[in-house]
Every structure is written in C-alpha cells, then in structure tokens.
Design goal:
InterPro entries: Carb_Metab_HTH_regulators, DeoR-like_C, DeoR_HTH, NagB/RpiA_transferase-like, Tscrpt_reg_HTH_DeoR_CS, WH-like_DNA-bd_sf, WH_DNA-bd_sf. This protein is an alpha/beta fold and about 250 residues long. Helix content is about 40%, strand content about 25%. It has two domains: about 55 residues, Arc Repressor Mutant, subunit A (Orthogonal Bundle); about 180 residues, Rossmann fold. β2 and β3 form a beta hairpin.
Amino acid sequence: MLTSQRKNLILDALQRDGQVLAKPLSEAFGVSEDTVRRDLRELAAEGKLQRVHGGALPSSPAVANFAGRQAIGSEAKAAIGRAAARMIAPGQIAFIDGGTTAIQLARHLPADLRATIVTHSPSVAVELAAHEALEIVIIGGRLFRHSMVTVGAAAIEALGHIRADLYFMGVTGVHPEAGLSTGDLEEAYVKRALVARAAETIVLASSEKLNAASAYMIAGIDAASTIIVEKGAPGSTTAPFEALGVTIERA
C-alpha cells in the first residue's frame, strides 16, 4: 500500500470514528507501528490531525489569522453570540474571551444592559465602547495577535483579583476526552485562569470545533457547564458531551 493511500485511509477513519490508534492501524495496513507513527507525524505537520498518545484526534480548523476567521461561519457565530448575550443578567460580572465569536457576543448585548464586562480582548472592548450602561474592565498584557487578546503574567495576575459570575470561553477544540484546547500555550494559561475565577464557564463553539483538538489543553470537558452551538450542529457531534452531563444550547 502506498503512503498516500495509508494517509487517506487514516483521515477517513478519523472522520468516521473521531480518533485513530496506531496499533490497530498498523495491523490493518500490515505495516509496523513506526510506519504508522511516521504517517501521523507527517499528517500532523500538514495540520490535518492532532497527535495524542497512541494515536491521533481530528485537528481544529481554526488556524487562519483573526481577520481571515471573521469570514468563516459568520452566520453560525452570529447565532451563537446572540444566544450567549441573552445569558448575561443585569448586575452580573462576566468574562468575555477573545476571538471572532466573542465579537458577535459583544455586538448582540442589549444597549441598556447594566453589567460589568471583563475582557482581555481589545477588540471586544472597542465593540462595547458605545454601551454606556456597561462597566468595562480591560485586562492588560502582551498582545497575542492571532486571537487579538492579551496574554502573559500580567494578565493572569490581574485576573486573580476578580470573581465573575460567567465566563464565555472561545476555543479551537472541544473533545469529550481531550477536553477544551487552544493552539497557543500562553493563551491556554490565561483561559485556565479565567475558568478558575468564574462561577460558570460557557463555551462558544461552532460545530467544526466539536470533537476536534489543539495542542494545548485548557481544562477537561467538565469545566464547561454549557456549550453553545449553532442550531444545525449534528446530534452525533453533541451527544458525547450531553452523555458527560454538559448542557448543549442550540442557537
């Protein structure tokens, strides 16, 4: 069997089963595990999967830059943002993450909402500037341009002094076993700090991020009380999370 054929079969299995393991693949292909691991390494380098111990998971598609991602799945993101905005009650303190879906959340907040929004996203802060009833707290740090958020020790230190009712998390991967993940180490640390300082974490995830994984784990899936997905997200993709007790909100 040619290398290209093996790789196509690996990707087919990944799409069908949600994960692949090196040992069963080597037996099915009649090659060594080292050969399969090499295939997995090469596919990972091409951004087509995320390697994990013993095999691989689907890779998150959220690799474009911030401007490029704004045009991807814009209707779904708008619907998710609209549903998330309805969850913030007057008087609450809410963390809003960075990312293109978080921008949609900010755009759909009611103009008369009286609440406190804490964000490490300059883009979200600017989006909310016209909301005179909102108290807006901006967390500083080093700007991570891919997501247009601040990261680093300064951001984490500032978050340690705030307790929020809700945290609206953006992710690049949501997987029942691999948990919540993102593609940058420092961003993962900041998101972890946000989870620790909020009473409830709500994940904003368009369907292409479900059952996918990125390199840096934020937390286990049990950190999320709710995952908001677009209305058309297939039941087969959300069922594993519901089985674990996570509420699925369809926008």
